[in-house]
Amino acid sequence: MKQIGLLSDTHGFIDDRLYSFFDKCDEIWHAGDIGNIETADKLAAFKPLRAVYGNIDDYQVRSQYPQLLRFECEQTDVLITHIGGYPNHYESSIKSILLVNPPKLFIAGHSHILKVMFDKRFNLLHINPGASGNTGLHNVKTAVRFVIDGTEIKTLEIWESPRR
Asked: Which domain holds residue 99?
């Protein structure tokens, strides 16, 4: 069993309150637009970090983190990217992956809109953690934590904070 902290679109800013929200997490996953390598390094110093780069990330972030990350956590197949869409509106590159070999958990960022949706067509859970940074159109910063226990994804909790 692993507890996961999930965020996206930090754009170089980490709200200090996220550290207490993620305190009991085993890993942190970042769905892109990290902002700079220093932000990734801060998260990685706090907890083990799995991350992908986003469209605003520079060469340093891109040299350390991939555009697409697929791995198994517990017995759950996970796919993370920054620009991936959501059920019935997937990006074409993601849709081609889903048609051949869908994961159980698909995570994408980019939209700055928190979404948790089950996709019946591909039998997967989609999570977009929204945006936890101070840059963008969102008014509320968001992040997510959840538990993966074998093949079960459960105990999903949302962190919200007004953007300053």
From this structure: 2-162
User: Residue 164: exposed, middle, or buried by beta-carbon count in 10 A (0-12, 13-18, 19+)?
Assistant: exposed
Structure-derived torsion over alpha carbons of residues 60, 70, 93, 14, reported in degrees to the nearest 10: -40
pLDDT tens profile 9-66:
999 999 999 999 999 999 999 999 999 999 999 999 999 999 999 999 999 999 999 9
H/E segment holding residue 137: none
CA angle 123, 124, 127 (to 5 degrees): 155
- List the CATH number of the domain containing 65: 3.60.21.10
Residues 6+ apart with CB under 8 A from 149: 1, 2, 74
Count of domains forming the chain? 1
Q: Coil, helix or strand for 19?
A: helix
Burial 12-48 (b: 16+ CB within 10 A, else e): bebbeebeebbeebebbbbbbbbbbbebbeebbebbe
- What's this model's pTM, rounded to 2 decimal places? 0.97
* Strands 105-108, 124-129: pairing kind: parallel
